[in-house]
Amino acid sequence: MFYKIAKTLSVTASIIGILMMAGACSVKSQELFYLYAALGITTLTTGAFALEYFRMREWQYRKRKIREAREHARREAA
What we know:
Helix content: over 70%
Largest sheet: none
Mean pLDDT: 82
Distance between the termini: 34 Å
Shape: rod-shaped
């Protein structure tokens, strides 16, 4: 459940980053261009990192649940 919410937010951050980089092309001032480009790249990489981080956390959670279920079954069988 938490992974789905985090995935949605990280994809949204990635899309916002792309839009910021696209918006930088329409700015006439060079300082604003660099600001938008930097914010876009930062937001994009943050979204990509968050997506990978939460995917890894979800995998660890599932792995732990499987291990706990096996241990529980082993105790019940003994």
